Amino acid sequence: MSFAGRAGSLAPRCLHHLLQTSVLPAKASPSALISANSARLLSSNQHSLQEATQTAADDKAGTSWKLLASAGLVGALLCGQQWVQAIQESHCEQAQASAGSVKDKQPGRPTYTAEEVAKHTNREDRVWVTHKQGVYDVTDWLDAHPGGPNRLMLAAGGSVDPFWAMYQQHMSPEVQKIMEGYRIGDLEGGAPDNVAVQDPYANEPKRHRSLVVRTDKPFNAEPPLELLAATPLTANDFFYIRNHLPVPHVNATTYKLRVEGEGMRAVELTLKDLQTKFKKHTVAATLQCSGNRRAELNSVKAIKGLTWDTGAIGTAEFAGVRLRDVLQYAGLDAESDQAVQHIQFEGLDSDVSGDCYGASIPIEKAVSPFGDVLLAYEMNGRALPLDHGFPLRVVAPGITGARSVKWLSRIIASKEESKSHWQQKDYKSFSPMVDWDNVDWSSAPAIQETNVTSAIVSPSPNDSIEGPTDVVSVKGWAFSGGGQAVIRVDVSADGGATWTSAELNPVSGKTLRRAWAWTLWEAEVE
């Protein structure tokens, strides 16, 4: 994600991952720091610009530091690539806020029967739906609906309530306000008993109480800042959780993975097949939500999506079989069969219409012997937790977490990308001039490799450090997608006039091109 300003380009050639994390004194302007160093960090594919501020006040006892923002990183360019200003995630609004309410019946407003509503199921006759005790003509909202017209049409002539119990972001005050604009009357007798909605989230797994919950339904949460990057590997209990739908409960003994597609024979593999017929591989990989650190963007301009702090990221040691090996087992020959351009994944998590979560990655990543894409059944030496995809998930290192499909049920080799909503109308980057009124989803590619980014985890926001010292210990994490290693983190406390190079602890070791895990860093800053 990026916000405000830009860094200059490097000539005559690209260098990789000169990463600068910085803090600013109170009187320094962010733009001064941005312009002070034209090219402090480079990454593959997409780039990131974030700012952190810190106040310093000298007194007789020493120096008092107060961190105002936990962000870290400034500047990024990759030889001639253009800046993208924000990663927008359309499908999960801030639904954790109090649910919006539908206005009560009002005298003089038309009343319609359920039978009358049921006659309006197409654009020609107008598309009507009910929500609680209201009747709505949503014909003119079909094409603007973030989930696409087809999803809204599933409720045509009936109630949206069973669908909205699944996608509870619709209950946010913002969406309820939009909905009221399409209200044409009241439902005679109120909501009928036959649309009483069962809670699709009634059977969710237990989670650690320390997690900072962003939404309950679907469940999305991140660890508190003090636990983030406390150790090289993130404990399973504190690994961020990003769910789009209810968590499916899968019987591992009857589970089967179906593999099919262009130039392949269709095969079904049990979990035992995967564990016994293929070589087991282990990869330490960092997964990160595309919207990580969105709260910092919201502090500048309100945008859609979960208000993640810096914790929608985590690193684990995943074990399983290589996707490449499974594709070859099913007969895929990517070199001779040029028709296959994408590997699609489908999960077992689905909505009331049967639509499942899906995504895809390019064939080059999927079959590369150096891509290390796993079909993982273990996480940090244990079976995958329910929230993280038990019994099997994709782990695509260096690629945004949205493509690492959990509860994997199907793999498809195809000439086309996944048609899933989350591949086509979510997790894409646009100019800051693009909004919901003029967005053309087809004009932007789906995000794959993640941007380079870094964050300060200590001191925490609003921490005060008192005492007779001129030195403050600053700690954080840095990560870049595409397997590119972070090779330097610089920290400044004077607006970029001077820089301190941080001591690095790369979890991936000294590799520069298959660095799938984050780098922890620490600097003593005067």
Automatic annotation (TrEMBL):
- Give the highest taxon in the source lineage: Eukaryota
Which GO BP terms sit in this record?
Answer: sulfur compound metabolic process
Known Pfam families for this protein? Answer: Cyt-b5, Mo-co_dimer, Oxidored_molyb
Pathway annotation from the record: Energy metabolism; sulfur metabolism
GO terms for MF: heme binding; molybdenum ion binding; molybdopterin cofactor binding; sulfite oxidase activity
Q: Which cofactor does it need?
A: heme b; Mo-molybdopterin
The chain positions of domain Cytochrome b5 heme-binding read 109-188
Q: Does the keyword Metal-binding apply?
A: yes
Subunit composition and interactions: Homodimer.
Q: Which GO terms describe its cellular component?
A: mitochondrial intermembrane space
Cellular location(s): Mitochondrion intermembrane space
Q: What main location does UniProt list?
A: mitochondrion
The protein's name in its UniProt record:
sulfite oxidase
User: What EC identifiers does the entry list?
Assistant: 1.8.3.1
